[in-house]
Design goal:
Blueprint (H helix, E strand, L loop, with lengths): L84 E11 L5 E13 L6 E7 L9 E5 L2 E3 L2 E3 L2 E3 L4 E10 L4 E13 L11 E3 L2 E5 L8 E2 L2 E2 L16 E10 L3 E4 L2 E7 L4 E7 L7 E5 L2 E7 L2 E7 L4 H21 L7 E6 L6 E4 L2 E4 L8 H10 L15 H17 L3 H16 L18 H23 L1 H15 L6 H12 L4 H9 L9
Parallel strand pairs: 1-14, 20-21, 21-23
Antiparallel strand pairs: 1-2, 2-9, 3-8, 4-9, 5-6, 5-9, 7-8, 10-11, 11-18, 12-13, 14-17, 15-18, 16-17, 19-20, 22-23
Helix pairs in contact: 1-2, 1-3, 2-3, 3-4, 3-5, 4-5, 5-6, 6-7
The structure holds zinc ion (ZN).
């Protein structure tokens, strides 16, 4: 996630959720779209309040090849493990005619293999749209687990649920879970306290819109709330097969690759999408136009409101430079497409695998959120990290990648200036000696979290680069990518790899910046 405003202006508190507004009112004239179905919006039915019913009819052929979600030269990545979790999600999206409320009705089928050496007694699932950062309400279940009816047990209020297993799932054994889910959402998501799920300017922004398996840490499901201000999800890489039915006059941007599309008699469209190995997916639906740039075998695709066409071009150009810079610096992006979606007010931007939301189009600050979120494709998307407990690994890296962008764009003066700005911000804090390696909730507030994890985190990457030298720093990033692509890194492993690269002891550097803190040297 990119910070929305300058550090000194970050708003600290969450506002109370506004009451959902009623349906009805005048029909909004749809905006013109390019290259999309032109049917007028159909009347969307009021979502049912009937009990949800589990079914195993979702995607019976759950072994659908995912190969189209990868560039041909990376097709073999699918063979890295036979045990990728597979999500098959069949959803129907409806918006009210004024595009102020939306519902998502879905069936999820999840095939999960126990990776532990010990049996699992339950399966737990996160319902992230119920988190306060999401302007939504979600319910899910009951479930069928290997064909047996299971009533979920709520956890953490309604943020997660547990599916108790009739008999423990043995190490290496696979379970087939099917459950329905329902989400209601509204807007706006911008304003003083942005939210990551909801409607903005007629665009439905829908990340992590399905029950998500958390990670297993030390043999237990990582089910914990996300402190305000930081990212929320932690999940392992999986394969996704999505069928999305949505109003036919709106553009649909989705993580992954569209493999099939049909228009339905009721004016809706059904889009079938598959992904390569990704740790989450998101979609956006709205009156969006598109523009693309092809970089080698990868298509960068902008989705934007017509009034933001000029900004979208600026976004695409910056994304291309950053894409090429990080391909060289870190490693290849293995998917055929990256979507950059206009989402006014969605922080500076928010990252999801294969799709980023940019909240600043039409304003003066388009480049930095864009290149920050593009960098998250490597730092969080491909190289995972614990976003709750070691967020510096992706946020420090993505912020420093803004400096790398300016260097790659031939704007070394701006790169130097940005580092000076970051140092000045850090010096503005009464105690700049705090370490960067704390969890989101361990800093005093959102401002302090942003200052140490983003700002000081970026300065740490710069300090590491100075310590290693530029060539060894790049060599380290390559090794880091090769070691942790599709996996989840941690700070200790990061340090070990850096030390392996230089053949040196970096204990004092990491203690000073990451683990213990202290007075960092004054830099030019
Ligand atoms: Zn970020």
């Amino acid at each position: 996630m990119a910070r929305r405003v300058a550090i000194g202006l970050i708003v600290l508190s969450l506002c109370a959720c506004q009451v959902l507004q009623g349906l009805g009112g005048a029909r909004r004239t749809p905006r013109a779209t390019i290259g999309l179905p032109t049917a007028l919006p159909s009347a969307t039915p009021r979502p049912t309040r009937l009990p949800l019913e589990p079914t195993l009819t979702v995607q019976p052929d759950i072994d659908t090849p995912q190969v189209r979600g990868l560039r041909p030269e990376y097709a073999a990545d699918l063979l890295l493990t036979r045990d990728w979790t597979r999500y098959s999600l069949d959803i129907r999206v409806a918006l009210d005619p004024r595009m102020e409320q939306a519902t998502i009705d879905g069936q999820a089928r999840i095939r999960f293999t126990n990776p532990l050496a010990t049996p699992l007694r339950d399966i737990e699932l996160m319902l992230w749209p119920n988190d306060p950062q999401y302007r939504a309400e979600m319910r899910a279940g009951p479930a069928l687990v290997d064909g047996t009816f299971v009533d979920p047990v709520p956890l953490l209020g309604d943020l997660a649920l547990s599916l108790p297993l009739a008999k423990p799932l043995a190490p290496g054994a696979t379970v087939d879970i099917s459950l329905p889910f329902h989400i209601e959402t509204s807007g706006p998501i911008g304003g003083e306290v942005p939210q990551r799920f909801g409607i903005t300017e007629g665009i439905l922004v829908a990340p992590t819109f399905y029950p998500l398996l958390p990670r297993l840490i030390d043999g237990a499901w990582q089910v914990e709330p996300a402190p305000p201000g930081g990212d929320t999800t932690n999940s392992e890489t999986a394969l996704y097969d999505l069928a999305i039915r949505a109003p036919g006059d709106l553009a649909l941007a989705v993580s992954g690759i569209e493999v099939d599309r049909s228009e339905n008699p009721d004016g809706t469209q059904t889009v079938h999408v598959v992904t390569g190995p990704m740790r989450d997916v998101a979609f956006a639906l709205g009156p969006l136009e598109t523009a693309t740039v092809q970089v080698a075998q990868v298509e960068l695709r902008a989705w934007y409101l017509p009034e933001h066409a000029e900004s979208a071009q600026e976004m695409l150009e910056a994304a291309q430079v950053q894409y090429e810079a990080l391909t060289d610096r870190v490693g290849p992006y293995p998917y055929p497409q990256l979507d950059l979606v206009d989402a006014p007010g969605a922080f500076g931007g928010i990252e999801y695998p294969g799709l980023v939301f940019i909240g600043t189009l039409g304003g003066t600050n388009v480049i930095e959120p864009t290149v920050h979120e593009v960098a998250h494709q490597w730092f969080y998307g491909l190289i995972g990290d614990d976003q709750l407990h070691e967020p510096w690994l992706d946020e420090g890296a993505a912020t420093y990648a803004e400096v790398l962008y300016y260097e790659a764009a031939g704007r070394s003066g701006r790169a130097t200036g940005m580092l000076s700005d970051l140092r000045a911000w850090l010096r503005s804090h009464p105690d700049p000696t705090l370490p960067i390696g704390l969890g989101v909730g361990e800093y005093a507030d959102e401002r302090e979290y942003a200052l140490f994890v983003y700002v000081k985190g970026a300065l740490f990457f710069d300090a590491l680069r100075r310590e290693l030298g530029d060539a060894a720093f790049t060599e380290f990033l390559h090794l880091y990518y090769q070691t942790f692509r599709y996996r989840v890194a941690d700070g200790a492993a990061f340090q070990n790899l850096a030390q392996d690269t230089c053949g040196c002891d970096l204990t004092s550097l990491f203690d000073l910046w990451v683990w213990q803190g202290g007075q960092i040297p004054t830099l030019p």
